[in-house]
């Protein structure tokens, strides 16, 4: 018994000094090593994990400091999980550095199967002619449109009651796709958005519902 106790203590001590990465997807990994020895009480045990998200294969420390927090006392469930702002901030930083927020939308990549039918991203330059007259000078003939979306700053994550908000700064560049498959840049617009995201678990996957505040 003494040997097993010593082994357990040494294991926990070792796990607090090592990075223990687990892949989230092809772009990011989470370090779930213990940040301190477990706190054992008569009715429960507290396990504090680091919860730092890194770009896959890059364990450079993110520009955030983890603030301590506590879980409210409850006893009607067997297991409680709590995630801090730090977890979401490092997630945002990791995905930003990998370019995950840079998206190109064309007719070819936006086809989706929905109830046996296909929906298409099918916008042409003609739709912009009345809104932005300058576009008509470059595109007398209607051409398909390609959109390039890019985050220009790290999205800012803030926890709120029952959800969290994300402040997103980005830009969108609109291209005309010419008959020879080359593109002509039409215009670029800056975007600032404030969104609320509520998290739920469906089919063992963490999913988010998005609401645009402004």
Automatic annotation (TrEMBL):
Biological process, per Gene Ontology: defense response to Gram-negative bacterium; innate immune response
GO MF annotation list: lipid binding
Location of this chain's protein in the cell: Secreted
Transmembrane segments: none
Domain Lipid-binding serum glycoprotein C-terminal, first and last residues per copy: 45-214
Main location: secreted
Database matches in Gene3D superfamilies: Bactericidal permeability-increasing protein, domain 2
Self-association and partners: Monomer. Homodimer; disulfide-linked.
Protein purpose: The cytotoxic action of BPI is limited to many species of Gram-negative bacteria; this specificity may be explained by a strong affinity of the very basic N-terminal half for the negatively charged lipopolysaccharides that are unique to the Gram-negative bacterial outer envelope.
Comment text on domains: The N-terminal region may be exposed to the interior of the granule, whereas the C-terminal portion may be embedded in the membrane. During phagocytosis and degranulation, proteases may be released and activated and cleave BPI at the junction of the N- and C-terminal portions of the molecule, providing controlled release of the N-terminal antibacterial fragment when bacteria are ingested. The N- and C-terminal barrels adopt an identical fold despite having only 13% of conserved residues.
Name by which UniProt lists this protein: Bactericidal permeability-increasing protein
Gene transcribed to yield this protein: Bpifc_0
